[in-house]
Amino acid sequence: MDLRNWILERVSPAVMVVSSPAADAICREKNGLTVVDLLRPHGSFHHLSVPVRTVGDTSYRIRELQLRFFHSQTMTQPSREVADEHLHQLLNTLAKEHVDNEPTSMVHLLRKGSLSYQTPWFERYRQEFFRMLAFAEHECYDHPVACLYVVHVDAEDIVAELQQLQAGGNVPPLMRQGLMEASILQHCLVLHDATSEGGDARAQEQLKTLAARSNCSCSLMKVHVGTSDRKANGEPGHAGLWRAHFQPRLPRASAGELPDRPEEPDQGLGAALSSTDLKTITQVLEDFTVRYLLPDLELRLRALNQQVLVSRKGLRNQLKSLWRGKSASSTSLANNSNNHTAPAPETPGRTGPTPTAAGGQAYSTGSMEFQMRMLADVAFLMQDYELAGTTLRLLAADFKSDRAWKHYAGAQEMLALASFMAGASMATVTAAFSEAFSAYTEVARAAREPAAMVRYATRTALMLAEYQRAHGQFPEAHSALLQGYRQEYEMGSSMRAALLLEQAALFQLHRTPALTHKFAFYIVLAGTEYQKSSLLRLRAHAYRQALPVYQGKEWNYIKEHLHDALGKQLREGGEPVAAARHFVALLPGAFNPEAWQAYFLQQLLDTVQEAAAKGKVPPLDLPVPEVDVSRVLVRHDDHICHADSAALSQPLDQWRLLEGPLGAGAEGTTSWLDEPSSKAAVRPPTIVADEPLTLTLNMSNPMKLPLRLSHLRLSCSHSLCRDEASLSQYVQADELEFTLDPSDAVQIGLSVRPLQPGMLTVDGLEWTLNDHVRGFRAFPARDPAPSRRTTGVRRGAAVRDRRILQSRTFNVIPAMPRLEVHMENAPPSLLQGQLFCCRLSLRNTGPTPLKSLRMATLHPDIHLAPLDPSHDDDPLGPLSQSSADTQPGAHSGASPPHQHSPLGQSRVVARSHTAKHGVHVQTWPSELAIEPGQALRWNLWLHPRSYEPLLALLSWCYEAAQSPSDGPRQRLLRMTARYDVQPALAVTPVLTPSAQDLHKHLLRLDLDNSQGATALDISEVACSTPGWSLTPIADRGHAGAAPSAIGGSTGRPGVQHQHLEMPAGTRRAAFFHLHPPTRSGGNVTSGVRWMEADAGPLAHFQARPSHPPTEARGTRRTSDTSTDGASPSPAPVPSPSRAAPPGSPFAAAQGPLWDSPNILVAWRSHAQPASTSGEALGAEVPQAVGAVHLLDCRLQEGQAPIRALAEGCGRVTHDFAAAGACSVPLRLHLRNCLPHPAGLSVEAGHMQPHTAPSEAGAWRCLSVPADGPVQASDSQAVGPPAALDHLWCGCACTRIPDLPSGHQTSITLQVAVFAPGLYKIADYGIGWTTTSQGAQQGSFPGPPFLLQVDAAVPS
């Protein structure tokens, strides 16, 4: 409220109304109003301009004035008991009107900035509370300043009727006791009913007679002129004007109201009054105020001021009062100790207060103190606040000297109001209010009825708090209300104590910052006080306001007390549904023992059953079981289907890479131009009719009791469904039923299947707890997932977030064909290099046929057969049979000739090609259609060539056989194939040039099965590169080689059988001669028959290497390499053959002659017991076959440009006695290994032979084996110095001008020795020069030749 306007309305002139029975009867019968009810709405004047001069020579104007009208017999104060009972009933009524079971939280209103300063019922209570304290004997502003007599114009003797009213004793009780001024203005109001006989002439005649014969002024008020204005509903147009001024009634006439009200007529309040009547009444009252009331108050004010000026103002009067005050006060108190009234003295003077029947003190109207209080209050009513304040300060001193604390408190209270209206400082106003409160408190301690006195202290506290609140001093206002609360609490007035605490708590929210915890503390105390006074609705409201503060805090016992009290109260009040909501909040109560949890749960069950007996109970937001709705995983398919969760978790970029060649356009590659703007509406996800929408969530039982859950399902709604009863025609939801043990946690999946197109909304989760309580948990609506351009977010993480429920609304499109792919014989794990055939089942589970089937994959270790299984001719070839029984034309596993293909086709051929980025695409004939329920079976070959989990991505694309009218035309199925790979055979090739043949290479295969757990047999070793061939080298006891490791030939060039067993944990080596192709075609092509088959899987895998050459030779990862199957490495990408470095003479080499050979090592595993692989006990697992691909094998040291081989007689015998020099011919073979023709030159004697330094000089120890070629050793030096070894003779430089690429030639050199011994011939060099564009040249020392010369033994 606005404090200034409230003071002007509350402290305003009071007019006592005495009406004749005839005048009162006219108003009651025709309008349902009393005379006072008729006058009250017209007592406010806002456009006055009345000049007034109270004291001094300065005048001012009164602009606004409010008159208060009361029946004379009602101007008395009701007893405390009656007032408190009335206020209690009023609060109960207001609580029913304003208190809601779900009120808006004040803390929430505070955050929104719309918090009110008070509760709705407090303003009304405060107004009634102040009214109950009106007409007190120690205050004069409620005393009447005028008496208005109302007589009817039709009275036979109007003068006699007026005199009868004046002599009838219709005065307030205080006036009869001499405690209220009786010498007041008297005015007669003649009520003229326009509908009565006689008319206006008789009314004017009666008015003149009354004015001439009476001793008071008179006015005529004419009513019932014209017709009443009515609203559309028939109610009088001004009925609300009267109702706004009605006050609640009391059992007896008091507080300004009669105990009964006139009966409202059928036509409504004011039915006979028109707008003209209202203007007439206002004009008559304004004329009465301006012409009679204000002049009378002005004269009265001057007279009172003159009396006070003579008796109390001035220094002499103050000293006299100080000298005589005590004696006069004591004498007056002694003489009047047993009298209830005191006669007024002839001359006003200091007579002291008179004891009252209530135990207090009162001053009679003739006392100077009464006259001074009357002067101050009349000055306040006349809006002369300076005069009122001056008089009240002087009067307060007199009351204090008389120890009349009640009057002193009243004077200080009025002084505070006058100071505020006069614009004094806050300190002055606050000090006056505080002094009044303290004085009232002292009076209450000494009074016989302290509770009656405490009410005045509470009134002062309320006005002080309102004054401080208006100035923003919320801490001070809070303290003022707490002081009032303490006084009321001590007196046992729980009702007012609760109200004061509630308002004090609200002021804590208005502080900066808001003290929410203190607010909750005081509001809970207020609720406790409300409970003491049986105001249960207000107690519930207070508790509800405290709950949001403790929400989320660990104040468990406070929240438990609040909810328990609220629940019990609402249940007793006949509101079981609202009570159940509070009992729900008592769960789970994890801090409580099991007995208390059982008690609270049973309390909830009983309340719900009681509510169900009265009607339908809505689902409750149950906290048990705990449901993690923040992370609900959703699984649904639109035009993109995912076979499993692993497919859904793969990065989106990999799927787009696969699906690009399919032409599906599922999601495609988008740019920033394709992305929707932030302001655009986000489209809901799409699902297909008659396909499940599955939500996976976590549930747990936080209680110490088992919970039985039934009818657990998803709560949904459909856009086409108009009522809940027909929802089953549009949505089919699965239900679960189980029991959660204490502290148990489970993960559940719930599915819902839309049956018709439209919009499907998943609202939440619903269930029934312990067969009685229906629970519901809503799913939160989330913001759309971040776009691809969001910075700081990993692309893979954004894809995984798509599994979380983002939108509760789904767009249901018409039914489509649905492809499901299953692997019928999927192995639990594979060996590294194993070749395994899986049988795929491609089934159409949708309601319509599908066609145009396509598949794309990027992983090189999987291959889809080109033919259906009924026409798959021997895909394994020789590997499917034993090595001994393999024949060129044999094949294994072929279907009988009479077997038919699936779907009634004679032959189904799937064409394949490699698209961009190495994506392998397989396409089935477009005329092939799979009907609903039919299945197509196909072979899928697996060949893991690296020791890491095999994770392959397969994307299937297909179309509906009939183009749909609505929805997408194509559909995708994304699936993953993941298998664990166990270590098996690892092969490392070592390739070196042959020292005995310019065309051969030496190949050593290091076979490693040390990490494998399965024994293997090496079946075959083959060279798959056209033109190359292999021949085994006999074992000569090489370290690491197995005896008899070399087997016989298969009869096919380039293929060698290896009867080599490799037990688990062993290592072996095998040796071969590798023959490259020649220009002349002298070598036969080593083609492999079983790799040339159309459906041969190894041909596909050989063409698609699994790893780059440096990593594809069977090498294993080190022990510290991660083997986590959850994060496999991406699918390997085929890499080109290793090329020569730029500038090398081999940079332009092309053709079969210069290709690096590819080696294939085939193996078989031994049969294993079934106990290790899941088969029936006693059976054996079939043998596994596999192969190791050695791609792009190159020389270990690199290819030499020119290969040279020196030949000659290694040992000669010469008779040095006959001839001093021995000439030995040396044959040098040269082969051009460059891709271009080259010119060669051989220069003898220009290259220094290589000698290893040693302590013995240049002699070298030559190690000559018993058989085989002689080999040199540089470990020791023996023999003659190198400079005297030998001499070259003959042609020292031989040139070969143009040797074609791949050709060889031979030249003869001569070397001469002069003594027997062992010689190393190496001091010659070979140079070469290319003649093609970009000529290059080089040189290198010739190969050393060992020559042993023996001296001839004389015969």
TrEMBL record:
Chain positions covered by the region annotation Disordered: 252-274, 326-362, 864-916, 1034-1057, 1100-1151
Ranges of compositional bias, category Low complexity: 327-362, 1136-1151
Annotated ranges, domain TPPC8 first Ig-like: 683-827
First and last residue of the signal peptide: none
GO CC annotations on file: TRAPPIII protein complex
Coiled-coil residue spans: none
PANTHER family linked: TRAFFICKING PROTEIN PARTICLE COMPLEX SUBUNIT 8, TRANSPORT PROTEIN TRAPP
Name of protein: TPPC8 first Ig-like domain-containing protein
Species assigned in the record: Symbiochloris irregularis
